[in-house]
Amino acid sequence: MTERPRLKDVAERAGVSQTTASHAFSGRRPVSAATKAAVLKAAFDLGFVMEGGTGQRTVGLLLRPPEAIPGFASGSDTFTSVAGAVLVALLGAGFSVSSFLTLDDIGAQVGRLDAFVLLHPRRGDEVLRALIQRGIPTVTLDPDPGDAEFPWWIGTDYAANARTLLDHLLTAGARRPALIVGSTQNTYMESIAGVYVQEMRSRGLPVLVREVEPVRAQQGGAAAAESLLRIPTPPDAFLTSTDLFAVGAIDAVQARGLRVPDDVLVANMMDSVIAELAVVPITAMKANMQVWASQLTRLLQRRLSSGAPLTSHLLLEFELVQRASTRRRSPQG
């Protein structure tokens, strides 16, 4: 069994004295911000935990995926709302919460983490791997699609939700629905793309897909839709993975002198305020963020109390919210 790292190991790695390393944790004597960051990062890298404290458990929360970061003003509010709901639920359960954008942020800002909540892990997620290696109890919203062994997660049956939305578009008259999906490799994006391709092929319909970097937001959605509308036989509907891709698709449709929904239908996988207040309100699948947050918090409490992993995973449900973007006067044949 490997010996647990000690304070002197942290000091050596950070290039400071053991006394300085101790002050970086205790705050009894001032140390520079750069020195404190170096000590905390060394502690995180080594898996060192400073004993003691108030007894309040500190939980790390990583803000993800990329489209959540710009914030409500310029980015999708769906994932931002998820992060906010989880933060409130954790605080309500008595946890102290520190939020981060990257793995480096974690190491530079904290010396002690009792647990971690990871939202929407990517395939082969490097943060999840690092947390597991350091022995930090972690739970995730959605599984890592490349790790079938990690059991501490709750999620959603995105495949069923994608089928519901595709069925809605086809019932509303679509015969050539296209998909605009984010390029992030996580369970959400991969499930949507997988179901779309499978459903189109099984129905003998053309597969029309554009993959967009999530940070391109509305402009990326517009560019993807524009490229599809230029093909010889263009799509008559767009299914998108984020609200801003959907707004961008509407922009592209209208720029070509077409109308939503009369000429082209538009629907988005996850509902949001942006979808609801769009120039043409967008049909979407609505999730209860508070349920997600409370169930994730309960899972974390179960893990910290040494409870057994779930033998079956909670798959939260969405409901279809139909709006003007798919309400044609009559289905087109």
Query: Which architecture of the largest domain would the CATH scheme give at its second level?
Result: 3-Layer(aba) Sandwich
Q: What fraction of the residues are assigned to beta strands by DSSP?
A: 15-25%
Q: How many structural domains in the coordinates?
A: 3
Q: With helices defined by DSSP (H or I, 4 residues minimum), what is the helix count? A: 12
Q: Over all CA atoms, what is the radius of gyration? A: 23 Å
CATH class of the largest domain: Alpha Beta
Describe the protein in words.
- It is a single chain.
- The protein is α/β, with parallel strands linked by helices.
- 41% of the residues lie in helices and 15% in strands.
- The strands form 2 sheets. A 6-stranded parallel sheet has the order 2-1-3-4-5-11, sandwiched between helices. The protein has a 6-stranded mixed sheet with strand order 7-6-8-9-10-12, sandwiched between helices.
- Strand 8, helix 10 and strand 9 form a beta-alpha-beta unit.
- The longest helix is centred in the first third of the chain and has 16 residues.
- The mean pLDDT is 86.
- Pfam families: LacI (PF00356), Peripla_BP_3 (PF13377).
